[in-house]
């Protein structure tokens, strides 16, 4: 597989603390890669290191298959990014703002500005940036990162602060950029549902460490089901399940609740055996585990968002 970005044991220390510790990322070309983690997990730090905005403490970064070397910054020209809160001039319109940033890059292509504003769905009118809604500001930030038609987009929490409709629109826009414009996208979020609906590849980062990296399909396979039992005889039921039925993965959830994560036995069978043993069950139901629980397990119970 070809990777747009590869990092090898990338670490960043601030004082004595690791913001990022031995993180090896693999972002496949042409895909949407979601970097998922709680606030402070290290997502922005990873992106800043990849973009050369901060120097790693140790580790290596490859962009488009080439090791980043101080003398050669050409790979950065192939990247567009929107990281942290991008600054715009409040008294200028969207097109005027983009024109200023284009000038900083060396050339102003009015057609490209107009095209990119169309692409992100921003009207080309006299409205000033100061009068923009948050959603429009986010779109303009995306437009700015796209102006030079980069192959790779690095977007730090692009849906932050947006309402549900704005989130859905931004998601659709990113998908269009990937599917129709063939861009590689690295996008971060602390929202599990967001990444779940957007990304083809997912990296889960927690306290500076990459806990898991896999395709969306692989992650989906980790969803598993179980059986939840509500009973006043919790301790007797759990003894029966483990000793008499040989079910190993039984977890106490509360005073009256048990979860059987062992999938060797159906809920029907469990119910029947408990009934035959005279153990009263007030409720029993099949549980389809969500990815959220998988993450909770990965992060030692903390969950994602
Ligand atoms: N310049 C800095 N100096 C000191 N500590 C920093 C600096 N930048 C980040 N950190 C610390 O590194 C850790 C990771 O921060 P980072 O911003 O990368 O997390 P994040 O996953 O992007 O979080 P958020 O979703 O809140 O933006 C945090 O503990 C943060 O306080």
From TrEMBL:
<dbReference type="InterPro" id="IPR003439">
    <property type="entry name" value="ABC_transporter-like_ATP-bd"/>
</dbReference>
<keyword id="KW-0067">ATP-binding</keyword>
<dbReference type="InterPro" id="IPR017871">
    <property type="entry name" value="ABC_transporter-like_CS"/>
</dbReference>
<dbReference type="Pfam" id="PF00005">
    <property type="entry name" value="ABC_tran"/>
</dbReference>
<dbReference type="GO" id="GO:0005524">
    <property type="term" value="F:ATP binding"/>
</dbReference>
<comment type="similarity">
    <text>Belongs to the ABC transporter superfamily.</text>
</comment>
<protein>
    <submittedName>
        <fullName>ABC transporter ATP-binding protein</fullName>
    </submittedName>
</protein>
<keyword id="KW-0813">Transport</keyword>
<feature type="domain" description="ABC transporter">
    <location>
        <begin position="5"/>
        <end position="232"/>
    </location>
</feature>
<dbReference type="InterPro" id="IPR003593">
    <property type="entry name" value="AAA+_ATPase"/>
</dbReference>
<keyword id="KW-0547">Nucleotide-binding</keyword>
<dbReference type="InterPro" id="IPR027417">
    <property type="entry name" value="P-loop_NTPase"/>
</dbReference>
